[in-house]
Design a protein that fits this description.
single chain; alpha/beta; Anaerobic Ribonucleotide-triphosphate Reductase Large Chain; 12-stranded mixed beta sheet; 15 helices; 14 strands; UPF0210; UPF0210 protein UQ64_10555
Length: 452
């Protein structure tokens, strides 16, 4: 049961500290939609999504009014299309992306994830068709998000896929250059992708999941910041305990919303993802938490340690509040979506190399980073390879969502709008890595992956 005291605390967190439920995401299996004919497959997909998610948005809005908790997004994730559409006789999955977009608009969700491929060990015919379809698919749709998993701690890193994704990201940037290459904001490259992530752009409904499920993502950087302001200057034990207690309260809000949404939609509850996902709003920033912890700016010496403390204690507090904490729970560091991160970049405190170091201890990786449009595809592949190596060796999820903004250079500002925010174009190491990337093949899994 949720106590009266918890309700009062929650109301304060909502009014004063930017607490919100960032997303209710319905995961939908498309495995039973399989067909060899594109038209039939697309009709099956459209019917399945619109039937399953018909009441999703209304239910979210009803819960928002009833509990007074802002529910910012309502979203859908589906079975990776490279799997679900594997039987379709075609050379492009762009029509599938278009039908996903149409279904998303019909039910009113803001994003639909799952235009995805899992190629950590190699590509099937369907995987390759999907990857080749990404640039056009993201150019002609509004709400479709795409992801590709190129590595895992168990399988190693598929460097052929890493090389290919550098080219795909450049193509996607070119196809949407009239909109500051925003197509790349809907594309993420993973190592160790998880099957129950409710956050975009990397959400997909894993093959190990149920037929349909409700996953909820809760975000509360402002709440953590306010709590830490009350223990300013105190020791690390106090700091950690404060983060844990606050994360517990935030997760309880998500648990309440998830249980009610599950009940009303008659769909099983999956997981709560407690991720400190910032917004461009002042006071809703991971970087500002670092400042309260004692750093002048994000990127100063000690930043990686501060992030490690934050990430670990958010998870420790969250798992005490719900039996099913999952997804990418922890702290996100997306540059364009965090006012404090943007400020740190502009002041020269935060570089791409420092962000890469921080990804060793955050919950995802290099996220929403604008880079010069002149960046080569090999350099982007090198960035992906570095992040995948961090994920593979450390047995954690890492990801790359970089945006080579065609026609823009270091220091220029790019406006993406909404939750995607804005970002200064960051400098990228210009030394050549093409001979390394062009080797091809697969980097074997680390020795500690053999645990049987």
């Amino acid at each position: 049961m949720i106590s009266l005291v918890e309700v009062q605390e929650t109301n304060k967190m909502i009014r004063e500290m930017n607490l919100d439920v960032r997303t209710i995401t319905m995961g939908i299996s498309l495995m039973d939609c399989a067909h060899t004919d594109m038209r039939t497959f697309n009709q099956n997909v459209y019917d399945k999504i619109t039937r399953s998610a018909e009441k999703l948005v209304k239910t979210g809005e009803d819960l928002e009014r009833q509990f007074g908790v802002p529910i910012v997004n309502k979203r859908i994730s589906v079975t990776p299309i490279a799997i679900a559409a594997g039987a379709v006789k075609t050379d492009t999955y762009v029509p599938v992306a278009e039908i996903l977009d149409k279904a998303a608009k019909e039910v009113g969700v803001n994003f639909i994830g799952g235009f995805s491929a899992l190629v950590q060990k190699g590509c099937t015919k369907g995987d390759r068709i999907l990857i080749d379809s990404i640039p056009e698919a993201l150019a002609v749709t509004e709400r479709v998000c795409s992801s590709v998993n190129v590595g895992s701690s168990r399988s190693g890193i598929n460097m052929d896929a890493v090389k290919l994704m550098g080219d795909i990201i450049i193509q996607t940037a070119e196809r949407t250059k009239d909109r500051d290459s925003i197509g790349c904001a809907k594309l993420v490259v993973f190592c160790n992708a998880v099957e129950d992530n409710p956050f975009m752009a990397g959400a997909f409904h894993g093959v190990g999941e149920r037929e349909c499920v409700i996953n909820v993502g809760v975000s509360g950087p402002g709440v953590i910041k306010r709590a830490l302001e009350e223990v300013k200057g105190q020791d690390f034990e106090t700091l950690c305990e404060t983060i844990k207690r606050t994360a517990f309260k935030v997760t309880r809000v998500g648990q309440l919303v998830a249980q009610e949404a599950s009940k009303r939609l008659n769909v099983p509850f999956g997981i709560i993802d407690l991720s400190l996902a910032p917004t461009p709003e002042i006071g809703d920033s991971i970087a500002e938490i670092f400042q309260v912890m004692g750093l002048e700016e994000a990127g100063a010496p000690g930043t990686t340690a501060a992030l490690a403390i934050l990430n670990d204690n958010v998870k420790k507090g969250g798992v005490m509040a719900s039996s099913y904490v999952g997804g990418l729970s922890g702290a996100f560091i997306p540059v364009s979506e965090d006012h404090g991160m943007i400020q740190a970049v502009q002041r020269g405190a935060l570089t791409l190399e420092k962000l890469e170091a921080m990804t060793c201890v955050c919950s995802v990786g290099l996220d929403m980073i604008a880079i010069p449009g002149s960046t080569t595809k090999e350099t982007i592949s090198g960035i992906i390879a570095d992040e995948a190596a961090i994920g593979m060796v450390n047995n954690k999820t890492t990801a790359v969502r970089v945006i080579p903004v065609i026609g823009k250079d270091v220091g220029e500002i790019v406006e993406f709008g909404g939750l995607l925010g804005y970002a200064p174009v960051m400098a990228v190491n210009g030394f050549n890595c093409a001979n390394f990337i062009n080797r091809g093949g697969r980097i074997p899994a680390p020795i500690h992956s053999f645990k049987n």
